[in-house]
Write a structure and sequence with these properties.
InterPro entries: 2keto-3dGluconate_permease (IPR004684). Catalyzes the proton-dependent uptake of 2-keto-3-deoxygluconate (KDG) into the cell. This is 2-keto-3-deoxygluconate permease. It catalyses: 2-dehydro-3-deoxy-D-gluconate(in) + H(+)(in) = 2-dehydro-3-deoxy-D-gluconate(out) + H(+)(out). It comes from Methylobacterium symbioticum. By secondary structure, this protein is mostly helical. It has one domain: Na+/H+ antiporter like fold (Up-down Bundle). The chain is 70% helix and 0% strand. It has 19 helices and no strands. Helix 6 packs antiparallel against helix 7 and helix 6 crosses helix 11. The chain starts with a helix and ends in an 11-residue tail after the last helix.
Amino acid sequence: MQIPIKRSIEAVPGGMMVVPLLAGALIATFFPGTPKFFGSFTGALFSGALTILAVFYVCMGASIDFRATPYIVKKGGTLLFVKVGIAVLLGLVFGRVLGEAPVTAGMFAGLSTLAVVASMNDTNGGLYMALMGQYGRPRDVGAYTIMSLESGPFLTMLTLGIAGLSAFPWQTLVGAVLPLFVGMIIGNLDREMRDFLSRAIPVMIPFFAFALGAGLDLSKVWQAGLLGLAMGVAVVVFTGIPLFFADRLTGGTGVAGVAAASTAGNAAAVPAIVASANPAYADAAGPATILVAACVVVTAILVPVVTAWTARTFGRPEDATAEQPAEAAAAPVRQPVGGR
């Protein structure tokens, strides 16, 4: 007898990230002594998020091809610049008001500059590429080759520094992005290594998600419920509108821009990494992880709806079906990953 576990998890938006994260949080909330009780490999699984993430980013980097057509560089670079620019702007605003600490009481309890920046910085690549496959052009799919540089904590750390908050030593900033670039070098030097390492990307997502969840206290989740929903909507609105116009300025109809107005599942890992690099963010990391995870789910539901509406209203790119296969082949992109 076969039970469709994988299919059921993937039916949940961002399921490969969200479901294991919630499973770890449930165990941590109701059975907090589990890691210490079992110890050994079981205990390590509850506390090994950063180690798993380090390997994950090497594999992710290996899947990124250095080669890209000028259009892909222009499109992907523009969307990347706008998405990160919005995060920097909001980081400056919230940094002045909140600093590094989260809001501790009221309906905004748990909100922090870290949560806002982490939710805005990283695009759900799997969702973007799937939507572009339906509503866009092959070369619009390839734009994610450039946008994938959002992945990981580096840009979030950089944004927090620009916002005038607690700075990170240059070694920490380099260390945050080094696994990604090491993977990129390996993958571009050897295509067989790219194929080998790329296959591990979707496998690792539920494991580091579980370990992240094991550090969360679900007794505080109710405080983040409506706030998480509002933040998810805010990600679509505050990044979607500028991305729409940026896409049109680069020759698109706005569809690709709207399709990029989401939060990646991997972004839920960023608050914990940032806090491990700088203790000033320790209090904000737990609530921020919950809020960012909520943004993953909300944007995964809203973005396809808004993208479909944009395609109907403003039209699909004229050459959506007329491009030559060679153009798509000119810039290989990594495969969509569950939760990204």
